[in-house]
Amino acid sequence: MANRQAQFEALVQAYSADLYRFAFWLCRSRTVAEDLVQETYLRAWRALANLRSGDSAKGWLLTILRNEHARLRQRQRHEAPLDEPEMLEEIPDDKPPDDEAWLLRRALARLPEEYREPLLLQVIGGFSAQEIGKIIDASAPAVLTRLFRARQKLRAELIRESGADAGAGRKTS
């Protein structure tokens, strides 16, 4: 039992920040993200024997978190319809439009979830397309396509948000 607890504590210490960041980007709410991380750890504790190696722990935990988020969204759909996407709730509109970090967060929040999720797993989690595919249950080529489209949509959204011309600053031959 002591070895199991030590293993679990090491997981919590190593991955709490990454899990919280990913949960926050999924739900855009601090309290819901904290609850998702807690649920993730509860399920991880119960299934700790299923963890094959420490090398796969981060992906395993992110998969649990992603599934918990899907369960939460499913429950919310049955409880009440959403008028506005929940991901935009905590991104205020009153920030200065020249704030690059705000523009990026806003643009990411506006990406459809099917594109935002793999992009965040790659950028925040540092996962390869193959690893992301295992987490989101998609093939590596499908993940690469989603990542490509996510970057295209993100670029277009940033251009739209900043009001910049798409061709500004580019050299033409």
Automatic annotation (TrEMBL):
**Where does the RNA polymerase sigma-70 region domain lie?**
11-77
- SUPFAM superfamilies cross-referenced by the UniProt entry: Sigma2 domain of RNA polymerase sigma factors (SSF88946), Sigma3 and sigma4 domains of RNA polymerase sigma factors (SSF88659)
Gene3D superfamilies recorded: 1.10.1740.10, Winged helix-like DNA-binding domain superfamily/Winged helix DNA-binding domain
Please list the GO biological process terms of this entry.
DNA-templated transcription initiation
**A GO MF label:** DNA binding
Q: Where is the RNA polymerase sigma factor 70 region 4 type domain?
A: 103-154
Keyword annotations for this protein, in alphabetical order, are:
Sigma factor, Transcription, Transcription regulation
Protein family (similarity comment): Belongs to the sigma-70 factor family. ECF subfamily.
Its name, as the record gives it, is RNA polymerase sigma factor
Organism this protein belongs to: Sulfurifustis variabilis
Q: Write the lineage as a comma-separated list.
A: Bacteria, Pseudomonadati, Pseudomonadota, Gammaproteobacteria, Acidiferrobacterales
